[in-house]
Amino acid sequence: MAKSILLELLEARNYKELKRLMGEYNPVDLAELLMELNDRDLAIVFRMIEKDKAAEVFSYMDDDQRQTLLDCFTSQEIKHILDSMYTDDAVDLLEDMPANVVNKLLDQVSKDTRADINRLLNYPEDSAGSIMTVEYVDLSPDMTVRQALQKIRTIGIHSETVYTCYVIVQRKLVGIITAQALMTNDEDVQVKDLMEENFIFIRTTDDREDAAKLFRRYGLIAIPVLDKEGFIVGIVTFDDAIGVLTEETTEDIHKMAAISSSEESYLKTSVFQHAKNRIPWLLILMFSATITGAIITKYENAFQVVPILVSFIPMLMDTGGNCGSQSSTLVIRGLAVDELHFSDFFSIVWKEFRVSLIVGIVLAAVNGVRIYLVYGGDVQLAMVVAASLIGTIVVAKMVGCMLPIFAKQLHLDPAIMASPLITTIVDTCSIMIYFRIATLVFRL
Amino acid sequence: MAKSILLELLEARNYKELKRLMGEYNPVDLAELLMELNDRDLAIVFRMIEKDKAAEVFSYMDDDQRQTLLDCFTSQEIKHILDSMYTDDAVDLLEDMPANVVNKLLDQVSKDTRADINRLLNYPEDSAGSIMTVEYVDLSPDMTVRQALQKIRTIGIHSETVYTCYVIVQRKLVGIITAQALMTNDEDVQVKDLMEENFIFIRTTDDREDAAKLFRRYGLIAIPVLDKEGFIVGIVTFDDAIGVLTEETTEDIHKMAAISSSEESYLKTSVFQHAKNRIPWLLILMFSATITGAIITKYENAFQVVPILVSFIPMLMDTGGNCGSQSSTLVIRGLAVDELHFSDFFSIVWKEFRVSLIVGIVLAAVNGVRIYLVYGGDVQLAMVVAASLIGTIVVAKMVGCMLPIFAKQLHLDPAIMASPLITTIVDTCSIMIYFRIATLVFRL
Q: Which N-terminal residues, if any, form the signal peptide (chains A, B) (predicted)?
């Protein structure tokens, strides 16, 4: 169903067909489609969605559309939506709203929901607590599989997942049991004989990215969240973890290109916000680059005598920057996916050193021959450029691979040690190497 | 359990305690621990793992260790491991082995497993078919919930997931039903009344990255895979999808730094392979950079008259490169996570144009003032550099945002239009703008 069909049915007031078609739609796709409607149509169409599905569709919409809908909802409708949403989605909705709106909305919901939401709203934004939900299945160790299945039958419909169940004694988590285990074992066996006592868990205060990485590592559907006292307070599910991993990777990629990250999507971010996200690093890098300029000034008389020297500056600077960013990118990504660690420092440096020698020699040879041929057999010039290339590439790769590891060790984000910063640092080195060699060879 | 404890227990021949400790370990962690052992210890310890867990631990190990183990296994052991592994893991194991070893191994397994493995081995490496598995629960529409649960009880233990079940009529997939629906509905209801008929599916020939993106979009646990005729041939599970998303993102990030991707991890890739992955793009970019050099040569007399001009080249080149790569990175990542599309072309260009004007004016103003102060009130010089900065930044951001979108439209990977290539292109433009303005202002 494209937007046009939807609008046609709406125009023709063919609500029956409209409802039927929307029933066939996946909530994610439906949310995307509704977001293309204008405010008036949105409210009309949204009210036609089946009640149980509506809260899910609502949770997939953007803040703007949700605000529009909330503005024209009755308090009864708001209560229904908030009560039907999983707590993590409700928290996600309320987090971006002004405090007075949040209070007004919370007035509408049931007492239990309000308490849950309030508790979750208190966790720091990047913590595991902020992405968890409280709708899980709790079992007790003495239950039989039959009793456990019976409990799931009763409360499972309101749980975000029934596929991992939590065995709890006096609010303490003593084990977890999968629905697969419950469904494939004898009904008279007790839960305590099937449950896994060595389970993976996270703390409310853990970084949400670290929590998300556990899903990637262990392939889990849900992970329990414990508070400081070891009591279970919620669970995080894999779909939220995939979202976090994607967001954190985007943030890393942006940081690697010297951009401060935005919460909003590209198109929703204003021009001024975009500019604000980009200018600070550009200013820092611009001033760092003037150091390279100052070094060049020192060698003014060198390129006044041999002006051709200037024409190799871009090639040297670019190649150095590219070599350095290759190394830093490999290390930054390796650290991000936990493939590389500080303990690998020497293996990495030794590997990069050998790689840089090979790369340097190949590039220097190709370029040396090219210069020799193009500039009428000028051996001296060919040698100067070739030697500078090798020196630049070795330095670039050493700087590129070391800085991200140092950053990580100093608890800085390794992603800032990427292309832009490495390029600026390497520029200075390459210009120094180049003019030092040139003044030596040409006795300037 | 650290490696040292394990080795101590092994030394002391305290096999009972060793077995007990290993029983407590998660298969993923156990695999990582075993990979640190030498070949002889590895074989001894591996044989002590509980049989059901062994295949899972095996599937998490690296190719080298698996090869070591296979070399010292009896055919009985090989048969057990291969039969216990999910087909997708078995295929993953065999894919990287020479054909004669594969045939030898396949001789050991049961006929059914062999047929499954052979079929999966035939799918292209980047296809959805290559990451699917064949162990799923199939139901028929006329079953009651009770019968369905009974079937899961019987075959569920061998399925990679029981949480999504597939309703099949004559090999055609007619609907899917979640375990949650089965567990929370009346036992006498028929499957056909609960199943979802509008389900998400993928084709064997779909790109595995596109398949993985569906998991991110819809938050699914498993997606069915259909062949050309619409018959169901397997399923892909979310844990494999997370793996694919991570791998593909790594590949993109490497490509954005002008590195050809390696299958192996950083440390396992040889120095020569590393060099081979990096040299081609460096050579291309190095030669492109000589164009910028050639342009500089044209303005030789300009910087012989005003030598200070040369010292601003690094700052202009770096800033242009950084600005361009900011834009290209935002667009490349936006395209990768399906947040931006070709239809957004004009909104993106218009947004980047306005951003580039703000960024350009701010940077030019700051730099203009700096030059005015540092170079004793040289207004002409300050004007030349400031104007060149604005021109460079506008061009850089335009080039940076457009090229990735064009690449996508031409079915090229947008990731190649990243920092290194953009920098090289922008360099040429910035040098041309700079010297054109300089020669005009200084009448050179």
A: none
Whether the CB of B313 is below 8 Å from some CB of chain A: the reply is yes
- Residues of chain B with Cβ-Cβ distance to A222 below 8 Å are none
- Contact A308/B at CB under 8 A: yes
- Which among A150, A119, A110, A157 is positioned nearest to A135, based on CA atoms? A157
Q: What confidence score (pLDDT) does residue B1 get?
A: 59
- A282 and B363: CB-CB below 8 Å? yes
A288, closest residue in chain B (CA to CA): B315
Tokens of B299: 């303005």
What CA dihedral angle connects B396, B402, B403 and B407, to 10 degrees? 170
Provide the pLDDT confidence category of residue A111 given band limits of 50, 70 and 90: confident
Residue A103 distance to chain B (closest CA, Å):
30
Fold topology of A138-237: CBS-domain (3.10.580)
What are the chain B neighbours of A249 within 8 Å (beta carbons)? 249
CB atoms within 10 A of CB B77: 17
Å between B60 CA and nearest CA of chain A: 10
CB A58 within 8 Å of CB A85? yes
Structure tokens of B272? 């020569």
CATH code for the structural domain at A3-123: 1.25.60.10
CATH class name, domain B138-255: alpha beta
Point out the residue among A28, A161, A329 whose CB comes nearest to the CB of B257: A329
What are A26-77's pLDDT values in tens digits?
A: 889 899 888 888 888 888 888 888 887 888 898 888 888 888 888 888 888 8
| Distance between CA atoms of residues A334 and B179, nearest Å | 37
Mark yes or no for CB contact A311/B293 under 8 Å: yes
Q: Which CATH superfamily is domain B3-124 in?
A: MgtE N-terminal domain-like (1.25.60.10)
- Put simply, whether B179 touches A (Cβ < 8 Å) is yes
The burial class, CB within 10 Å (0-12 / 13-18 / 19+), for B103 is: exposed
Asked, colleague to colleague, whether A3-123 and A271-441 share their fold, the answer is: no
Of B24, B183, B319, the CB nearest to A152: B183
Closest residue of B to A242, CA-based? B216
Domain-wise residue ranges, chain A: 3-123, 138-237, 271-441
Judged by a CB distance cut-off of 8 A, whether residue A192 touches chain B is no
Q: What is the ipTM of this complex?
A: 0.87
Banded pLDDT at A303 (limits 50, 70, 90): confident
Q: Do B355 and A271 touch (CB under 8 A)?
A: yes
Q: How far off is chain B from A44, nearest CA to CA, in Å? A: 24
**Residues with Cβ within 8 Å of residue A340, at least 6 apart in sequence:** A331, A334, A348, A405, B266, B267
Q: Which residue of A has its CA nearest to B327?
A: A257
Chunked in runs of 10, what are the mean pLDDT values of chain B (444 residues)? Answer: 80 86 87 87 87 86 85 83 83 79 80 83 86 90 94 83 91 92 92 92 92 91 91 91 92 90 85 92 90 88 86 92 94 92 94 96 94 88 94 96 94 89 91 93 83
**The residue type at B275:** A
Smallest CA–CA distance from B331 into chain A, residue: A266
Residues found in chain B: 444
Taking residues A354-383, report their average pLDDT: 92
Q: What CATH number does the domain located at A271-441 have?
A: 1.10.357.20
Of B253, B308, B359, the CB nearest to A278: B359
State pLDDT tens for residues B351-394.
Answer: 999 999 999 999 999 999 999 998 888 889 999 999 999 999 99
Q: Are β-strands A172-178 and A202-203 bridged in parallel, bridged antiparallel, or unpaired?
A: unpaired
Mean pLDDT of A195-208: 92
Residues 370 through 429 of chain B touching chain A, CB cutoff 8 Å: 370, 419-420, 423-424, 427
**What does B46-76 look like in DSSP terms, one character per residue?**
HTTS-HHHHHHHHHTS-HHHHHHHHHH--HH
Q: Helix, strand or coil for residue B172?
A: strand
Q: What is the distance in angstroms between the Cα of B48 and the nearest Cα belonging to chain A?
A: 19
